[in-house]
Amino acid sequence: MNEENKKIMTDAGEGGQFSQGINALSKMLKVAFRLLTGIIILMLIYFFTLGGLFIVDSTKESVLRLQFGKYTGKVYTEGWYWVFPYPVNTIISIPKTNQTIRSFTFMPADRLSLFKRAGESAEAKPLATGRDGYLVTGDNCVLHTEWEMVYRVTKPDLYYEKWLTPEKVLGPDDVVIGENGEKLGTRGAATLLQNTLDECILKETATWQIRDILYDRTTDYINAVQARLEKELAAMNIGITVESLALPVKRPPVQTIEAFDEAMSAGTQATTEIEAARGYAIEAENQAKSQAENIKADAEAYRKRIVAEVMADNKYFTSILKEYRRNPEAVMVSLYSITLGDALSKVKDKFLVGLNPGAKQEVRIRLNPEPAVSNNGENKEGEAK
């Protein structure tokens, strides 16, 4: 045995049978050792430099730090930071961007049937509980709705702690699998938010009339649901804020769509007629006011004119009375002459007959008098004297 070992050592020595292989293996081990040493050094450099460096953009995200898996209560909102990398510290980013949740809970199984016109689809099936979703309004009507909620995480630390510290804070919810492998649903933040939204929609819709929801007060209805939702989320204290709530789809059941469309058409026509009547009433009222103002203005002008005339007559008669008291005969002759002149000025033919008692009276009448000629060449009928 000793002789065999001596032979192997002799072969492995310089000039032996395995000397070249041993030398190659030795060189390879040295290279591997150096390479491994370099990798370790690079890893240590990375660990103490870039490995723990992170940048926080205040417009896009907030960052939480976990130390050995435990939340430290520190929220990074903006700037450059360095911490010992994993496994000492774990960085969790929570986006500040808006998140969207769409709820189809209250839509029928055949959702597209709501958007087809009459005659385009087969006969609609009755609604079935567990298969079709629907709402019941305050006046016992059935309604289908589709909702869209936009929210944003405003308190990342509170949101993270309330959701049982998930690794992917805004990631997709986990799917729950039953014992037989059946998918029972999802579980997580989005699922809870959607369920909360559905609950608020269900409660609020039960207090509204279907006409108000569909036609008259849709915006008020959406605002009421949003107010109830914000109240519920504030009570839950989960660190999110509802940015907006929209109602893209609101339709009655397929079987009643035509009836509702006819009712809406009649309501639209009635509204048009009412608005036309209101417009006519306003126009008639304006015309009446305008006429009343014109009548008042004419009456005021007439009053002023009559008053002015009466005042002028009063002034004239006062002056005549004054002169009459001074010289009655002269005033009477003057008035008589003025009155006679005014009367004769309106008479076409005038005959002057003198009074000469006991004498022969003659009246000379000019027959067929020639018409007078005016300056512009037109004929004027002459007056007989």
What would you note in describing this structure?
The protein has 385 residues and is an alpha+beta fold. Among the domains are: 74 residues, no CATH class; 142 residues, Tetrahydropterin Synthase, Chain A (2-Layer Sandwich). The chain is built from eight helices and 13 strands. Strands 6, 7, 8 and 11 form a four-stranded antiparallel sheet that branches. Strands 3-2-5 form a three-stranded antiparallel sheet, with no helix packed on it. The chain has a two-stranded antiparallel ribbon with strand order 1-4. A hairpin with a 5-residue loop joins β12 and β13.
Topology:
Blueprint: H1 2-12, H2 19-48, E1 53-56, E2 61-67, E3 70-76, E4 79-82, E5 89-95, E6 99-103, E7 135-136, E8 142-153, H3 156-162, E9 174-177, E10 183-187, H4 189-205, H5 210-216, H6 218-236, E11 240-251, H7 257-326, H8 328-344, E12 372-373, E13 379-380
Antiparallel strand pairs: 1-4, 2-3, 2-5, 6-8, 7-8, 8-11, 9-10, 12-13
Distance between the termini: 190 Å
> What percent of the residues sit in helical stretches (DSSP H or I)?
40-55%
The CATH architecture of the domain at 98-115 and 129-252 can be given as 2-Layer Sandwich
- Largest sheet, described in full? 4 strands, antiparallel
Low-confidence stretches: 118-122, 380-385
Average pLDDT figure: 80
Structural class: alpha+beta
**In CATH, what is the homologous superfamily of the domain at 98-115 and 129-252?**
Band 7 domain
> Beta-strand percentage?
15-25%
The oligomeric state of the chains shown is single chain
Helix-strand sequence = HHEEEEEEEEHEEHHHEHHEE
Rough outline: elongated
Q: Please give the CATH class of the domain at 98-115 and 129-252.
A: Alpha Beta
Task: State the total count of DSSP E strands.
Answer: 13
CATH fold-level topology of the domain at 98-115 and 129-252: Tetrahydropterin Synthase, Chain A
Count of helical regions:
8
Q: Radius of gyration, Cα only, in angstroms?
A: 55 Å
